[in-house]
Every structure is written in structure tokens, then in C-alpha cells.
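Human: If only I could read C-alpha cells as easily as an amino acid sequence. Underneath my words sits a plain record pairing an amino acid chain with its C-alpha cells. Take your time, and here it is.
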Amino acid sequence: QVQLVESGGGLVQAGGSLRLSCAASGSISSINGMGWYRQVAGKQRELVASITWTGTTYYTDSVKGRFTISRDNAKNTAYLHMNSLKPEDTAVYYCHDLGYWGSWGQGTQVTVSS
């Protein structure tokens, strides 16, 4: 299996920045890429960004130009760099293994104050 551990969430003022990290362990070779999702209480979890291990990226429209997803294959870690944060970015952020196991991390809270 694949285990994912997120870190880097917190409280930030609007316009600020945060960097989320997702460290993978276990069956690393089964991972094709990583996705970052977010969820607000009472709403569906939504895909924010994804990256394949060959570098292809995807961003949902609301974060284009503000968020950047990256990965460090040597460290088995994916990152989500979030700039120009808005209150509507407030959510629990999860990383998700896009490979065979489809594992999820435990989530990290991001709160953006206005």
C-alpha cells in the first residue's frame, strides 16, 4: 500500500501564501502521480491540482495562476504552493495517490482570513 502524510496547512491572511507537502511511503513504484483535493464541510471534495510523475499538470480554473503543484521524485513528495490566497480557499486539503492503491492522506486544514 501507499501511505501519504500531509503537512503545511495553517491560518493565513488573504493575499498570503502557504506550501503544502505530501510525503509518500510504501509501494512508491505504484504511484503514477499525485492530486491535491479540498473539501469544505457539507460539500463534495474537489480536485484542485494534479501532477503526473512525468510532469503533466492540471489545475482547476479557480486556482490557475495562484497555485503551483510540483513534485520531488527523489523525496517521494508532492507540493502545492498556494499564493494570493482567498477566503474561499479555506478548506481541508487532501493529497491523493493517482496510482493503483488510490490512497488518501489525513488532510490538513487551510484557513484564509479576510
Notes: The chain is about 0% helix and 55% strand. The two ends are 40 Å apart (CA to CA). The mean pLDDT is 95.
